[in-house]
Amino acid sequence: MSKFTPDTIDRVRAAADMVEIVSAHTELRRQGGRWTGLCPFHDERSPSFGIHAEDKLYHCFGCQVGGDLFDFVIATENIDFPDAVELLADRYGVEITREKEDPQAEQRRQARTRLTELLERAAVYYSAYFHDSPEAGKAREYLAGRGLGEEILRDFGVGYSPSAWDALIMRGQQAGFSVAELAKTGLAQKGRNGGMYDRFRERITFPIRDPRGRAVGFGARAMRAEQKPKYLNSAENEVFHKSEILYGIDRARGPMAKAGRAIVVEGYTDVIALHQAGMTEAVGVMGTAITEQQLALLSGTIENIVLALDADAAGRKAMLRAQQVAAGRKLTIKVVAMPSGEDPAELVVAEGGAERFRDLVEGAVDLPEFHLDLIMATVDPASPQDRDRGLAEAAPVLAEVPAGATRDELVRRAAERLGIDPTVVVARVTSAPKPQPETTRTGSASPRSNSEEAPPAQAASLLSQRERQERHLLAMCVAKPDEGRPYIEKLEAKHMTSPLMMRTVEWLKLHLDDPAEGLDPEDRDLHRLVAALVLRASPEQVGTGSIRRNFMELELAALEDEIAAASAGEDARLRASLNRQRAELVEKVNRAEAEV
Fold first, then answer.
1. Of 340, 363, 386, which one is at a domain's C-terminal end?
2. Checking CA distances to 476, which of 28, 109, 183, 258 falls within 20 to 30 Å?
3. 51: β partners
4. Is residue 571 part of a domain?
5. Is residue 168 located within the same domain as residue 189?
């Protein structure tokens, strides 16, 4: 993909409201020129997270994550830098311009843009037809009968496709799109006689959107019993991959971050009904088992997933598969015990149903416990063979539970149901084979939809004392640039613990008065470190001589490194000289501390 012009990135940064963006993920309170709140990237009870609204920077002093507004969107939306720029540009109405690129790459990008525009036009057309056309009357009655109001249906863009064979094809061509483009989006398909016709006809349509809110496909429900299949989705194509998207993800991202969880349901109306009831952290798997790519979408925002799938055999199978695809991910998955014969949409629109469903969500059990209960429910205690089968099926499930009180309790319950000693269950569990990670159809690990690696997650890291000294000195120099400039100029590679720290020093030597201005948008590591320094910089906390004293401490640390190297090389004369320098420097540091 071509690079954005620097002017584009600057205009997006200037237009974006940092407080608004971050407030969707954590509650902020103003403190002087900064805003503080609980960190959205790790659990904490007292605020250690802050943003600088003017410079569009953020940093957490607890887990050390930080950066600029683009980094924040990358981390919370689980997207890459170009997508973050485009998302913010769309949100704040900034026109994007790009540098010259390979003509073929530009052609592919423009072609994809046309396809998403065509899908969006189709969504608008179907929605208007649903609300205004007499033909869609039965569809409106059906959804009203399911307790879904007009406002929520408009919010989700629910529509209706006419019964005519080529209504959308004709409108698409009138708008300047080719039949080939209609076929590429899955809106049109070839018939047996070779002609083209609308894929969706006489159906309720549900536009499916990506995390940025762009239409990528449709789900469509039949209105007549003889129509098959009951639900018809867009065909897989270059913009729509059902296994890589979740219905409602564009609307649920912010609510999920605030709630700290995602409620995963099966169908379109389930998602809409839950959003109407105020549970806006709900997303849908669109009738399939949850996939690795869908979990990746969720894990970029939250760590807690509540599965509320139908209680039928297919729903149970989907929940069990979730346990496999979640292996190795830092996710907690719980399961709602749905009443037999009811789906979330039916339950939540009934009188008192919303509260009842909330109670079910709060009472959700861990996935291994749910799995074990399913197995034990099929065991005939009077049959030794059936008890052996139950033990064989339960052992791998229990093996996935970390050793501790939870596993002990599940072992006890299994042993009681099977009528055997708990030690027998434990022995079988410890010898159970480890589950294999899920693979794609080709047998390899599931890739991202664009065949690129997912952006690295911002992991919490513990800084060494030396690293804290480095950052503290640089932050003080940023806080008081006139006092700090002479010491910044003295810093060399020997004072720093990493090339990134030295790159930061070189940047500050030229930009100490305004470190956040003019950073290379592609250098995300430098962005994050400069953000940490700017958020830490507080002139009130820089005492007289503090910068000088901290610089000498780094000098002392660098000298210790030289002494260690001399000792390893068995150079006694150099070691003695360095030790004398160390003694003199320690005395200066002590005098500096006494003067404060």
1. 363
2. 28
3. 35, 58
4. yes
5. yes
CA distances from 567 to 563, 580, 583 (A): 6, 14, 17
123 and 215 share a domain?
A: yes
> Is residue 460 situated within a structural domain?
no
For 190-234, what is the HEC assignment? ECCCCCEEECCCCEEEEEEECCCCCEEEEEEEECCCCCCCCEEEC
Residues 6+ apart with CB under 8 A from 577: none
Nearest to 218 by CA among 125, 138, 141, 296: 125
Domain co-membership, 279 together with 310: yes
CA-closest candidate to residue 454, choices 250, 300, 248, 241: 300
Q: pLDDT tens for the chain, 596 residues: list them.
A: 457 887 888 899 899 999 999 988 888 998 877 899 998 887 788 888 999 888 888 988 888 888 889 988 888 776 778 888 988 998 898 888 877 766 776 777 788 889 999 999 999 999 999 999 999 999 999 999 999 999 999 999 999 999 999 999 999 999 999 999 999 999 999 888 888 999 999 999 999 998 888 899 999 999 998 888 999 999 888 889 898 899 999 899 878 877 889 999 988 999 999 999 999 999 999 877 788 888 878 876 778 899 987 655 555 566 666 666 666 566 788 888 888 778 899 889 888 889 999 999 999 988 888 888 888 888 898 898 989 998 998 888 888 787 888 889 999 999 999 999 999 989 888 887 655 544 433 333 333 333 333 343 344 445 677 888 888 889 889 888 998 899 999 998 888 888 999 999 999 999 998 888 888 877 888 888 888 888 888 777 676 678 888 888 888 888 877 777 776 666 667 767 777 777 777 776 666 555 55
Residue 328 belongs to some domain of the structure: yes
Torsion-angle region of 443 (φ positive above 0: left; ψ -120 to 50: alpha; else: beta): left
Q: What DSSP line would sit under 92-134, residue for residue?
A: HTPPP-B----HHHHHHHHHHHHHHHHHHHHHHHHHHHHHH-G
**Whether residue 354 sits in one domain with residue 472:** no
Sequence-separated (6 or more) residues with CB below 8 Å from residue 411? 398, 422, 425, 426, 429
Strand order in the sheet with 159-161: 159-161, 203-209, 215-222, 231-233
Residues in the chain: 596
Same domain for 225 and 116, yes or no, is yes
CA–CA separation, 182 vs 195, rounded Å?
A: 13
Same domain, 392 and 356: no
What is the CATH number for 123?
3.90.980.10
Tell me which of 334, 363, 392 is where a domain ends.
Answer: 363
**Residues 23, 35 contacting (CB under 8 angstroms):** no
| Structure tokens belonging to residue 474 | 């640089």
Q: What is the pTM of this model?
A: 0.66
| 224 and 190 share one domain | yes
Strands 159-161 and 188-190: unpaired
Overall domain count for the chain: 5
Angle CA 317–412–320, to nearest 5: 10
Instruction: State the CATH number of the domain containing residue 344.
Output: 3.40.1360.10
- Domain ranges, residue 279: 249-363
- Based on the fold, state whether residues 379 and 491 are members of the same structural domain: no
Is the Cα torsion angle 248, 250, 255, 260 positive or negative in sign? positive
- Compute the distance between CA of residue 555 and CA of residue 290 in angstroms, rounded to an integer: 55
